[in-house]
Design goal:
Order of helices and strands: HHHHHHH
Number of strands: 0
Largest sheet: none
Shape: globular
Distance between the termini: 40 Å
Structural class: mainly alpha
Radius of gyration: 16 Å
Number of helices: 7
């Protein structure tokens, strides 16, 4: 293995101590869900942003606890379902899976590294979209189109947005 890959796997993991501030825990997910529901109506070019997913991912990667990430992801997903016109529970299931797997991955890798953060944000965006497509077909019998090229492009855009967005969420945590 190279020096870089060994550092990613063997550096001591920083465990974020302390409690998350209410603004990070409650207000940030609510604001991102409202952003996703209302902003694309006025600015359609921003519809690719999946900010509730990024909040779920941030919590799971920083907290490194699969159990708490499961509950947090399901709460964000169900809230997102309730404020959209989509069937209740679909985002809840998908964001629960994302929270669990992201927290599990964060126990193995040093997720403070920006390169790792971008790669994980990209991967979990694709994971999120793919599993939503699978669940819509399997549970609801809907024939939703899945365009891998578009999903990869939007995944890259969300990964680029993830870095400054995660920094903002970290600053909110420190400010409280």
């Amino acid at each position: 293995m190279s020096d870089f890959s060994e550092r990613l796997l063997t550096e001591p993991r920083k465990r974020h101590s302390g409690r998350l501030q209410p603004v990070t825990l409650v207000v940030a997910p609510l604001a991102t869900i409202l952003f996703q529901v209302y902003v694309p109506r006025f600015f359609p070019f921003l519809s690719y942003l999946e900010l509730p997913l990024l909040v779920t991912l941030h919590f799971a990667l920083r907290r490194r606890s699969p159990l708490s990430a499961v509950f947090y992801g399901s709460a964000i997903g169900l809230l997102q379902d309730s404020l959209s016109n989509l069937p209740l529970g679909m985002y809840g299931i998908v964001k629960t899976l994302v929270g669990y797997f992201a927290a599990s991955v964060s126990q193995r890798f040093e997720v403070e590294n920006p390169v790792v953060t971008v790669v994980l944000a990209f991967f979990f965006y694709f994971f999120h979209q793919f599993f939503y497509w699978v669940l819509a077909r399997a549970l609801l019998g809907q024939l939703i189109a899945f365009d891998p090229q578009q999903t990869l492009m939007f995944g890259l855009l969300n990964a680029v947005v993830a870095l400054p967005f995660f920094r903002i969420l970290d600053k909110l945590k420190e400010a409280g």
